[in-house]
Amino acid sequence: MHTPISIDPDTGRSWRPRFDSKTLVHEERMLQAACYVVCAYLTGMRDCEVQAMRSGCLSLSRSTDGIIDRHRVRAVAYKGKQSQGEPAEWVTIAPVAEAIRVLEQLSADGAAVRGSDTLWPVLDTVRARKVHVSAEIVRQLNDYRDHLNILFGTEDRPVVPPGSSGRPWRITTRQFRRTIAWYIANRPFGTIAGMIQYKHASVAAFEGYAGSSRSGFRAEVEAERKLGQLDDIFRYFDERRTGTQLSGPASARIGLALDTANAEVGPLPAMIADRNRLRTLLVSLARTLHVGILADCFFDPSTALCLKNATETPQSAPLTALCQPTRCSNACITKSHRAAWECAASDARNLLREKRLSDLQRIALRQDLDRIQAVLDDLNP
Ligand code: SF4
Questions:
Q1: Could you tell me the residue range of the domain that residue 158 belongs to?
Q2: Does 133 fall in a domain?
Q3: Residues 325-334: pLDDT tens digits?
């Protein structure tokens, strides 16, 4: 209770008043919920698998030069409606390891009192009869949502956005696995908490049990990919109707496909156009769509420039890390890519200020800047 309270960098003041015996119990319960979110979200584990974690479940492996290269979590995998699980190992990223270390400290007393080594004991050892948080975690997660809204939001602007009805979003344990599957499938380059890329989380997850076909996670990622592709093509369609400009070599082809679909569904305003009919019209185009940082790819393997030097054939997906967005006929650039192009232009300008550049380097940079500027001009007619 005498722990110094850290300063909130946004306000310059203590992030909360001092603890007392009541608020400490509440804050511990909220910390347990926060750790649950980190573990469930970043590993893609099911609720029963997260709650099977025990003290000592984390192991680290190091490369020959001593750097940690894998964080492994041992727990029990449950598939379908099986009540009997089997031991399994998930590979994960550092924030999950950190959350497990916090849980080990947090759960030590509550678990020891009941002779258990679970990481998820009910923390209130005085009043609670149950050993394990089990289904109570749902109530705890929703209390945590309210706790964050009170601490960091206002009545009008909660930090956890409300549901479509305007009421507080009801959190369930299932949502974490589905959401990470959606991000891995559709926005792998997006960031979590401003620093970790979903790509990192997915590379780690696919190395462990989550990547095995028994876990079902790959199938969920694929299902989310199909849903995300349809959402993205609807976004293209709606933006086209409002006159948003497309750029890049594929823009004419994609613009024509969208205009043809538009003519078929008729003059209804975009929001009430028959989405089922639209889905039928656009589904094959949607299947080729891969969202990227500098351009979206409407993938056609026969013309894909990124596959020209690929050794594995046939390739069923684009190699987006080798994308040539101004040259490949599959690339389509929209306003959602503008920030990345502006950033590239500013990098090129900064490099050009360097006095020690050779003439050839300077020419190459200028050409690059011209190419970037042409894309930006195209997006800002
Ligand atoms: S080069 Fe880019 S646009 Fe072309 S196929 Fe590859 S990822 Fe898609």
A1: 21-215
A2: yes
A3: 999 999 999 9
